[in-house]
Write a structure and sequence with these properties.
The structure is a homodimer.
Chain A: E1 6-11, H1 40-46, E2 57-61, H2 63-72, E3 81-83, H3 90-104, E4 109-114, E5 118-119, H4 122-137, E6 141-146, E7 157-167, E8 170-179, H5 184-193, E9 196-206, H6 207-217, H7 219-232, H8 237-244, H9 253-258, E10 264-269, E11 273-274, H10 279-284, E12 294-296, E13 299-302, E14 308-311, E15 316-320, E16 326-329, E17 333-337, H11 345-354
Parallel strand pairs in A: 1-2, 1-4, 2-3, 6-10, 12-14, 13-15, 14-16
Antiparallel strand pairs in A: 4-9, 5-11, 6-9, 7-8, 7-9, 8-10, 16-17
Amino acid sequence: MANDHLYALIMAGGGGTRLWPLSRRAHPKQTLRLFGERTMFQLAVDRLRPLLPMARIFVVTAAEQVAPLAAQVPDLPRENFIIEPMGRGTAPCIGLSALHLRRRDPEAVMAVLTADHFIRREATFREALLAAAQVAEEGYLVTLGIEPTYPATGYGYIERGALLEEVSDFPVYRVAQFREKPDAATAMAFLADGRYSWNSGMFIWKVSRILDEMRRLMPDLGATLAELSAALEGENYEARLSHLWPQVRKETIDYGVMERAQRVAVLPVEMGWSDVGSWAAVMALHEADEAGNVSLGEHLAVATERTMVFAEGKRLIATVGVRDLIIVDTPDALLVTTPEASQQVREVVRRLREHGREDVL
Amino acid sequence: MANDHLYALIMAGGGGTRLWPLSRRAHPKQTLRLFGERTMFQLAVDRLRPLLPMARIFVVTAAEQVAPLAAQVPDLPRENFIIEPMGRGTAPCIGLSALHLRRRDPEAVMAVLTADHFIRREATFREALLAAAQVAEEGYLVTLGIEPTYPATGYGYIERGALLEEVSDFPVYRVAQFREKPDAATAMAFLADGRYSWNSGMFIWKVSRILDEMRRLMPDLGATLAELSAALEGENYEARLSHLWPQVRKETIDYGVMERAQRVAVLPVEMGWSDVGSWAAVMALHEADEAGNVSLGEHLAVATERTMVFAEGKRLIATVGVRDLIIVDTPDALLVTTPEASQQVREVVRRLREHGREDVL
């Protein structure tokens, strides 16, 4: 069931330090090839191709990222790249993008998507988007909820309220409340309760609805967006944007809008989603051999178990008598960690920054 | 107490696969810089300098190793390099070298030494050599015994018999018997017993004595050596050597001579000796920081304990949340193992050979 007013907005501005040493300032996560030949960004576009014409896929990113991202998807219209002068959090980013979409199509329904997540069941993802778009047409702000598979403490949760309707076999609920990242005990309780979904950071709504809510809940941002909307019709949009954007207050869409908005719905979906937030997550998304090893690159494993080698270079990596390791090899830096500790990779990046090691950041 | 007839013979022919990926066919163990700027071979010569003039330090090695080794010790006379066309075990190697020393000095006492071992207390080593030389002058075949510090299963042992004499505070014993590498229980018993030393592979004897024993106990080798000795006085030595050496039967000096020889003595010495037989041994010979880490190269350690990084290249190595690892980084190959498993590195080399990966061997 096509929807001619459905547009995708891929947010592709992130930096990301959690996949160091592969991710760098010059090579953010969405540009990495973690799952074969296609980059995360290419995969994010690819999974939309059966659903949308390229003309209705938009990308918001930093100015210096436009050229590399455009090169990765040559058939994506260049005018569909929206430039955000600097990161101000997801709320301003989405608001700015909504202006551009509204200008293209005042009836636009926008699906706010990410460039650096993994989705295994892409058909389910597309069906969920279409179902969510239908609910969005009715005026709801719809969030895609991820059915939790373990008591994660790294995600926000969404508590569902009453069933709103069922669309294409997807039940859609009113949102009872958004919950911040929980501690371990709370996460266990959420998982046991059954009414909680992970907040995927993917949203579907009419651009008119989200802009209305921003005007209401974030009046400063609303005013800035109104001024930029007017400027878009003239010739001084870029100058105004450069002037105004640094003054915009940083805010997330969750805190700035969703937690206080009216008519918010959640559509829980099981689609093999991962935010690929650590090397442990990368490892979990690859099939292991019978010893539990994941060898991406030339890996000679002797008495080795449950170990991932991710080798970007052409070097031979031999492991002998080790288990539960993650080894990431790049031409100028090597990481050896464990699935358990791989979250702490940020600490490496922090220390490198502290030591002025810009060459490997 | 100088000994004008004392000569050192440094055996520097070994290959060695146990320190892969640093050791390669083209870079055998004795050429490695494992303890700072000086190579193992340079250290082996350096520790003799206070004892012997360079004219009395000889080296036996393969033809292709002469140039690189000579370059490392430019003040060592080039004519003191003895070439062995191919490895035939220690007995033929020592016999051939003894011919050259006898020709230089019929009264020579030769100290058979290794190029790839580590000795922390070098003065003690030199005193032991002098004491052993004095016993050798009396006609004994003297072995340097190493006082065992743990129940090693990787070394041969020497059981001492009656006290023979005491020289410069070193007690010297008749050898009761040589024992092959023991199993763990036997090694424990040896250690508890107190009469066992490790066989260091270092020997001191008169060249005339060792050549006599070879003639008696290894008559085939004796005949070959007699022919080569005659050839040494003519012009066809090299041709005869090339012809005869491939036919020589491989044999160790322990099995070929020592276990059956007469008048064999052992001089036990505590001198901080290590055969540097694995990466675990290399790690043990370096001082660790308070977390137990040994960082040779640029190592960024986060929540890391008892881990050695040996980085030959210029790459940054970050470890996060790991313990008890050994990481050896070279430009074309990386090894990750544990102190416990580092003996199994040979298995890597074996598999690489099997797969025809000559480029990293």
